[in-house]
Design brief:
It is a single chain. The chain is α/β, with parallel strands linked by helices. 41% of the residues lie in helices and 18% in strands. Strand 6 and strand 7 form a beta hairpin. It binds 5'-O-[(R)-(carboxyoxy)(hydroxy)phosphoryl]adenosine and zinc ion. 5'-O-[(R)-(carboxyoxy)(hydroxy)phosphoryl]adenosine (KG4) binds next to helix 6 and helix 7.
Length: 363
């Protein structure tokens, strides 16, 4: 079957087509188109919801058109439509949800509402041969081919601009929330700290780049707090870290320009503090729940140091869990992950019953 995915929960307008048959362990990516209004938000240092939704209204139809064209599908080839119905910005969600409902009605196709957070987890199943074919054709996609299927039970760490959550997955369709951030999300911490250092929004990738350029002991230059690293639960907190960096920046303003040694040391130390907490909690969860797989998802999952350290720690702690992460371009928001989540959790809902839910969370 072929599923058309639509994702508009934040500032991206995305459409994708995936293909899979009943019993498949991964899904094939036939197209994956993402239009972003990020350059507009970079100017203001954050997403302005009204601006994002207006741009999405302009981008939605051309994005859909392009996704169908790239997949070489006509509307009649599509078997179902999957759409993100929450969580996210209400104006943005409405663009995708109303578009999907209209298509479902006009094309007479089933509609599957998808939780955006499930989507980030299911980016891990987008590892089919199709991706490799596309990668060979256009070098913008970097894919990792999994030697075998993801085994359950699994622990998934979702780290994005809006969320930091640890969940336990017994099997497809059975996801239990273990814990999450009590204040800022990990990506939000990267973005806010980047702003303190004069880096453009969103700052996660820029902080990673500066940290990479740092001396090997730069990550130890500042002893920033690692909030809740020792707490006996699966919750996180990153606002204290942001405050600690703010104090450091305020005490050294004269030396801090975005490419200075001080900024580089701060980036390396901050990145390590965040990663230490994420790795510790994820490994503890994997151990406690006897996970066979550890999955990473969300924009912060594109961070190579996080990917490397999660993988290495699972090995050095002799966990029997195997580490999986999506290709970097599929960690950030996209519609292919929404279509993949729909395939593995297939549940049609009449279009009349679907409404955008900005506050949607895990059950
Ligand atoms: O998943 P995503 O695209 O959107 C949300 O659902 O929030 O995540 C965006 C977040 C931003 O906070 C961005 O700074 C962060 O992901 N991010 C990174 C990296 N690339 C994106 N954080 C750390 N290292 C990166 N390489
Ligand atoms: Zn997201």
């Amino acid at each position: 079957m072929k599923i058309l995915g639509i994702e508009t929960s934040c500032d991206e307008t995305a459409a994708a087509v995936i293909e899979a048959q009943k019993g498949d362990k991964t899904v094939k990516l036939l197209s994956n188109v993402v239009a972003t209004s990020l350059p507009l938000h970079a100017k203001t240092g954050g997403v302005i919801p009204e601006v994002a939704a207006r741009e999405q209204l302009k981008f939605m139809v051309p994005t859909l058109d392009e996704a169908l064209k790239q997949s070489r599908c006509k509307s009649t080839d599509i078997d179902a439509i999957a759409v993100t119905y929450g969580p996210g910005l209400i104006g943005s969600l409405l663009v995708g949800v109303e578009t999907a409902k209209t298509l479902s009605y006009v094309w007479d196709k089933p509609l599957i509402p998808v939780n955006h957070l499930y989507g980030h987890i299911y980016a891990n199943w987008l590892m089919a041969d199709g991706l490799w074919q596309m990668e060979n054709k256009n070098h913008s996609l970097s894919a990792i081919r999994y030697p075998h299927a993801i085994a359950f039970p699994a622990i998934a760490l979702i780290v994005s601009g809006g969320h930091t959550d640890l969940v336990f997955m017994k099997q497809h369709g059975s996801i239990r929330w273990l814990g999450g951030t009590r204040d800022d999300a990990a990506g939000e911490a990267f973005d806010k700290i980047g702003r303190l250092l004069g880096l453009p929004y969103p700052a996660g990738a820029a902080i990673e780049k500066l940290a990479k350029s740092a001396e090997s002991d730069s990550a130890k230059a500042y002893n920033f707090p690692k909030p809740m690293i020792g707490s006996n639960d699966f919750d996180f907190s990153f606002s204290g870290l942001k405050t600690a960096v703010m104090r450091t920046v305020q005490s050294q303003t004269s030396q801090i320009t975005p490419n200075s040694q001080t900024a580089t040391d701060i980036c390396a130390s901050v990145q390590q503090a965040i990663i230490d907490v994420l790795v510790k909690k994820t490994l503890t969860a994997a151990k406690k729940y006897h996970a066979k797989s550890i999955l990473l998802g969300g924009g912060v999952g594109a961070n190579q140091t996080l990917r490397d350290q999660l993988k290495q720690s699972a090995i050095s702690h002799k966990l029997s869990a195997e580490f999986f992460c999506p290709p970097k371009n599929l960690c950030t928001d996209n519609a292919a992950m929404i279509a993949a989540a729909a395939f593995f959790n297939y549940k049609e809902v009449p279009w009349q019953k679907i409404t955008a839910d900005p506050e949607l969370y895990f059950d």
